[in-house]
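S1.2 Input.
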Amino acid sequence: MANLKQLSQQEEFFTPGHRMCAGCVAPVVVRQVSMAAGDTPVVIANATGCLEVASTIFPYTAWRAPWIHNAFENASATLSGVETAYRALKKQGKIDKKVKFIAFGGDGGTYDIGFQSLSGAMERGHDIVYICYDNGAYMNTGIQRSSATPQFADTTTSPAGSVIPGKIQWRKDLTAIMAAHNVPYVAQVAPSHFNDLITKVQKAIAVDGPAFINAMAPCPRGWRYDTREGIEMTRLAVETCYWPLYEVEDGQWKLTYKPREKKPLTEWIKKQGRFRHLFTDENKELLEQFQQRVDEEWEKLLRRCGEM
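S1.3 Output.
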C-alpha cells in the first residue's frame, strides 16, 4: 500500500504553478502518477489538450522531465518513435539506464482523435505507459461531446432541450477495448482512491511492454460542479459503480475495489449541472434508464472478474 506522506515528500516531475482551472482533477492525476514513478527516469509525451495548454504557457513549463508536445492525434506514435530510438541506442551501448515512456492525453485525444495511433502502439508492443485523463468531453475547445461523454450529458454539441435530452449514445468502454489488444497491463483508476491508482501505475511502469490506464479526471467547467468537490466527483463515480476500479493483468480481469454499499447513480449526477435536466418529471424515465444501464454494466464486469 502506498504511503502518501512519504510519496508527497519526493520530488515530482509535475510542479505547482500551472494554470489548470480551479477544481480540475487532471493535475491531481498527473501528480499521483508522478508519485508512483518515483525516481524512475521518464520521457513524457503530451497530446494537445487542457493539460498541455495550461502547463506550458511560454516561456514557462510545469514539467521537470523531458516533455514532448504532440498534436491531438499522434502522442502514441511520437512516443513509439522515441521508445524505439531508445532501444536502438541501448543496444549500441550508448545508453545504460532504464528509462520509462509515459504519454498523457485527454479523452478527446485518446478515445477519438488519437485512437488510431494508440491502438497501433499497443498492438506493436512498444514499452510505453499511456494514461488517459478522462474528463468526458472536449473541454479545451468548448465542451463538445466526445465518445467518452456519459449518456444524457448536456454539452455544446449535444445540448439538452426539446430535441434531444443531451448526448444520446452510451459512452465508449475504452478500457475494455485496450484490454482486447492483449497488452500486459490495463487498468481503470480514480484519484479519490489514490492507493489503488498509485499501485496500478507502479505495475504499469514495471511491465515490459505496453500498458494503458484510464483515469477519471472531472472538469468543473464542463461538469458544472462546485470546484471544491472535484475529488468527491470521482469518489461518487466509483461508489455508484459508474466508474468501477479494476485491472486486466495478462488477460486476467480483477476487480480492485467493491463498494460496501452501491450508491444510487443520482448521488453522483445530482451534483453536476450537465445532468440537471434529468431531474424533471418529463425525464424521469431517462433517469431510470441511466441507472439500469449502469447496473447492467456493473454486473457484466462482476462476471468478467469472477465475482458472480
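S1.4 Remarks. The first strand starts at residue 42 and ends at 47.
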